[in-house]
Amino acid sequence: MKYNFTNRAGDTGEIILYGPVGESFFGDGISDADFAREIRSLGNVKRLEVHLNSEGGDVFAGTAIYNTLAAHPAEVEVHIDGVALSIASVIAMAGDRISMARNGYMMIHKPHGIFAGDADHIRKQADLLDAVQAQIVDTYASRRGLEVDQVDAWVNAETWFNGGAEALEAGMIDQVTDPLKIAAAFDLSQFKNTPSALQAKADGVKPAQTSNRSRASAAIARMKAGIIASD
């Protein structure tokens, strides 16, 4: 993840979060502990501007990052510069005001994970996934003033908001901003309803790079034998 925390003009902090959420095999993610430490380094700012372009990642790290932002006393403005997919869309909900580029994307879906163990263990993990989903749905609904049943249906269907206008109409953001050209390579193979326009951009990633990243991520998941993939 390309991330940067800057104290601008004394009372405004700028946070740039580009890339995966959570610790990464490739060292390009940001952990919740690092995020908390970096945000404290900004001091007593009155305003936080968060620029987001992320495919998601670790659901628990993302939830902690969301909680850190939501609890911050400053006014938080979240700008979705490119994509806010999976748990990154939950982080976006920490904004007191959320904007999204006209050519941006937001996606919400069911949490998932890779597990190992006997039937009893896997049933417990399935129950945990259900609990995580309920928490995620509540976050979207409560922060945006939406009906829980509607949000739950969106999550179950893996719903994409293709462009700021769709996200605004759905009530997921407050404002649509001018289109931006953002250079970022994401592996979207884990998602089932990826819009063709976004997939075409992602296809610019070298196949070997994407494949190696996917294999490494899967290996780490198997070793942890728990939930490492986000919502």
What features would you describe in this structure?
The structure is a single chain. The chain contains 8 helices and 8 strands, in the order E-E-H-E-H-E-H-E-E-H-H-E-H-E-H-H. It has 231 residues and is α/β, with parallel strands linked by helices. The protein has one domain: 2-enoyl-CoA Hydratase, Chain A, domain 1, CATH 3.90.226.10. Strands 1, 2, 3, 4, 5, 6, 7 and 8 form an 8-stranded mixed beta sheet that branches. Helix 2 (59-71) links the parallel strand 3 and strand 4 (75-85). It is globular, with a radius of gyration of 17 Å. Mean pLDDT is 84; it is low at 205-231.
Q: Keyphrases for this structure?
A:
single chain, 231 residues, disordered C terminus, eight-stranded mixed sheet, 8 helices, 2-enoyl-CoA Hydratase, Chain A, domain 1, 41% helix, alpha/beta, 8 strands, globular
Q: What string gives the helices and strands in order?
A: EEHEHEHEEHHEHEHH
Please name the CATH architecture.
Answer: Alpha-Beta Complex
The chain-level mean pLDDT equals 84
Low-pLDDT regions: 205-231
Helix segment count? 8
CATH superfamily: 2-enoyl-CoA Hydratase, Chain A, domain 1
Largest sheet: 8 strands, mixed
How far apart the termini lie comes to 18 Å
The number of E-state strands comes to 8
Give the helix level as a range of percent: 40-55%
Determine Rg (CA atoms, Å). Answer: 17 Å
The assigned structural class equals alpha/beta
CATH topology description: 2-enoyl-CoA Hydratase, Chain A, domain 1
Global outline: globular
Tally of structural domains: 1
Instruction: State which percent range the strand residues make up.
Output: 15-25%
CATH C-level category: Alpha Beta
